[in-house]
Automatic annotation (TrEMBL), chain A:
<keyword id="KW-0496">Mitochondrion</keyword>
<comment type="similarity">
    <text>Belongs to the complex I NDUFC1 subunit family.</text>
</comment>
<keyword id="KW-0999">Mitochondrion inner membrane</keyword>
<dbReference type="GO" id="GO:0005743">
    <property type="term" value="C:mitochondrial inner membrane"/>
</dbReference>
<dbReference type="Pfam" id="PF15088">
    <property type="entry name" value="NADH_dh_m_C1"/>
</dbReference>
<keyword id="KW-0812">Transmembrane</keyword>
<feature type="transmembrane region" description="Helical">
    <location>
        <begin position="34"/>
        <end position="56"/>
    </location>
</feature>
<comment type="subunit">
    <text>Complex I is composed of 45 different subunits.</text>
</comment>
<keyword id="KW-0472">Membrane</keyword>
Automatic annotation (TrEMBL), chain B:
<dbReference type="GO" id="GO:0005743">
    <property type="term" value="C:mitochondrial inner membrane"/>
</dbReference>
<keyword id="KW-0472">Membrane</keyword>
<keyword id="KW-0249">Electron transport</keyword>
<dbReference type="InterPro" id="IPR009423">
    <property type="entry name" value="NDUC2"/>
</dbReference>
<protein>
    <recommendedName>
        <fullName>NADH dehydrogenase [ubiquinone] 1 subunit C2</fullName>
    </recommendedName>
</protein>
<keyword id="KW-0999">Mitochondrion inner membrane</keyword>
<keyword id="KW-0813">Transport</keyword>
<keyword id="KW-0679">Respiratory chain</keyword>
<keyword id="KW-0496">Mitochondrion</keyword>
Length: 81, 123
């Protein structure tokens, strides 16, 4: 054990003035943390609003830049012009 | 056959630089990637409940909604990038075809009547 005390850096850690973080009380599920609940629902509402705004969309700048087609409509046909 | 990507190179990063990312119509609110990732988020919330000995589906509804929404949001952007990638590949392919028309001569079509040999039944 003395030899381990030579090599181990844990020896230099003082064990005075510290206590374990373990607490013996269970988290209280009957009183919800309303701030966190409100934050969660608020963020949800914000994200849905953002999504709706994004998907209601910008008209494409010029339709000739990139061909857009539905993924079920098969391979792209080469343009005739 | 050479790869189509050799023809006109445009890198996937031009999506990030917003040069071309805006020229497509945005994906609809409901799409496969959104549904799947929203499901992933919801199941992870339910799992989190279960691991912590809470009622899995009936507790933490705000968490379930939030994680499902985050998944939906990420799925929407994944779909957007997917649309952009396929549109870019289509455009590059079409430009290649236009530049090399000699490689895409339409084959003359023969009807089946011309190919099939006359039938002499031996009964």
């Amino acid at each position: 054990m003395t030899f381990n005390r030579l090599l181990s850096r844990a020896v230099f850690v003082s064990r005075a003035g510290c206590r374990s973080a373990f607490t013996s009380s269970k988290p209280d599920m009957t009183n919800p943390n309303w701030f966190r609940v409100g934050l969660a629902f608020g963020t949800t509402a914000f994200l849905w609003g953002l999504l709706t705004h994004l998907s209601l969309g910008r008209r494409s700048a010029s339709g000739r830049d990139l061909p857009s087609r539905h993924w079920r409509s098969g391979p792209a046909k080469p343009e005739e012009n | 056959n050479t790869s189509f990507r050799v023809a006109i190179t445009s890198s996937p990063t031009s999506y990030a630089l917003k040069e071309e990312g805006k020229s497509l119509p945005p994906p609809g609110l409901v799409n496969r990637n959104s549904l799947w990732l929203a499901g992933v988020g919801w199941v992870s919330a339910v799992l989190h409940n279960a691991i912590n000995h809470r009622p899995p589906v009936k507790s933490g509804v705000h968490r379930q909604f939030l994680l499902a929404t985050i998944g939906w949001f990420i799925g929407y952007h994944v779909t957007k990038y997917e649309n952009y990638t396929y549109a870019r590949l289509d455009r590059d392919m079409n430009e290649y075809i236009k530049l090399h028309p000699e490689k895409f001569v339409p084959k003359e079509q023969k009807t089946f009547a011309e190919i099939v040999e006359p039938f002499h039944p031996v009964r």
